[in-house]
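Progress report, Aim 2. The chain analyzed during this reporting quarter is listed below.
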Amino acid sequence: MTSERHAHLRGTPLTSLDWELLQFMAEGMSFGEIGAIVNRSTDTVKHRAVRLYARLGVTGKRQAVARAYEMEGFVTVTEDNNKQLRATIAGLRAKVAELQDKHAGCEEMHQGMVSALQASESELAELKKLLTTTDLPAAWLDSTQGRL
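Predicted structure tokens for the chain:
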């Protein structure tokens, strides 16, 4: 599967996407299954795989996975750490939902405060208009000392 077009990739460092693809391959997933998980088309996953094969100097999934096991840092997902990862993800999703709820509450409070401020400003403008158009005793106007 490795083509001359991708020969320049041989020996280049693996990306995080490459490692993720290797992980899925090691679990025996098809390109379609991998695509469904990473939200990519099957063709896109195949293209990434061909580039990965070129980097590793192999011609297929089995060889790629075998080469990954030879490399430092490749760890397969076990049932135990898969459960831990799922629990962590569930906890993070719950925290995100909690923060979204708090954010929505803050937005509502902010809108309420803006509305109250606008109403107060409107009432103040009406009061000033009323005071400037009404004949008030001079003594009362002097007592306000320009606070209006």
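The mean pLDDT is 80. Helices lie at 16-26, 31-38, 42-56, 61-70, 79-133, 138-144. These observations will guide the mutagenesis work planned for the next reporting period.
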